[in-house]
């Protein structure tokens, strides 16, 4: 039991859960609503910096800072989701990539974010005088993940989720069915960003120091790879894909395989990611993916969608 509570193993699980939250948010945007995003790390960073600034420079309670960080990320994500109203598919991917790089540059050069020095001395949350670290923090992130999965299930099986899936399959058909695509596309970016914001806040208060390099394009690409391999439009797929790609390098470290040089672990990791992406090209739905379902299963009389001409706003 003591070995299971080893801080190293606990930290692995904590960061795994944080990446799962990131993956859930991205899968909502890309998997359920079909809006390709390559700037998800920006939402992650906004949540982390917002919570850090509010708690360190603003002097707010840690819990209040984390909650406000999610709200702030929700608002910023809605604004950053506005380009999805004008562009789509490859053009949307390039646009979100550009926005992500701009925001990372802001983190790196702005005085409020600490510039290149970042922000340190970020406090850990406390509950009834008990500082949440090690197993306490693990319980916190597990609770947040469980709530996140529950809310995601409820949303995707509701009227809102069905609207997103119709937009994913064919936006023109969605408009013909009376769905307010503007509202739903901005909403999915806002909610998906809020998931990333929660992950960012948890990340900041776990590591106690954040810098702009933690929220670059490589994070967005890694999370997208995790989601795509697991399967777009599937919560199980996100859990599997994130766990697979996050834990593989840790397994190499744990077993200390003789034929693997730890100095080149990052290179090995990218090779594995590349091989898995080749697999995805052959099987584009991923392992648990639900993409490509026929639109007739989402017709108004079967899915509770508004009939033609009705405004769903």
What is the H/E string? HHHHEEHHHHHHHH
Strand residue percentage: under 5%
- Sequence of strands across the biggest β-sheet: 1-2
Total helical elements: 12
Q: Compute the average pLDDT.
A: 83
Low-confidence stretches: 292-313
Q: Can you tell me the overall shape?
A: globular
Terminal CA distance = 53 Å
User: What does the oligomeric state look like here?
Assistant: single chain
Q: Quick one: how many beta strands?
A: 2
Radius of gyration: 20 Å
Describe this structure in words.
This protein is mainly alpha-helical. 66% of the residues lie in helices and 1% in strands. The protein is built from 12 helices and 2 strands, in the order H-H-H-H-E-E-H-H-H-H-H-H-H-H. It has helices at 7-32, 40-57, 62-80, 89-109, 135-156, 159-169, 171-176, 181-207, 217-230, 235-255, 265-282, 300-303, and strands at 126-127, 130-131. A two-stranded antiparallel sheet has the order 1-2. The N and C termini lie far apart (53 Å). This is Branched-chain amino acid ABC transporter permease. It comes from Paenibacillus alginolyticus. Its main location: membrane.
Write the SSE topology.
Blueprint: H1 7-32, H2 40-57, H3 62-80, H4 89-109, E1 126-127, E2 130-131, H5 135-156, H6 159-169, H7 171-176, H8 181-207, H9 217-230, H10 235-255, H11 265-282, H12 300-303
Subcellular location: Cell membrane
Membrane topology: Multi-pass membrane protein
Keywords: Cell membrane, Membrane, Transmembrane, Transmembrane helix
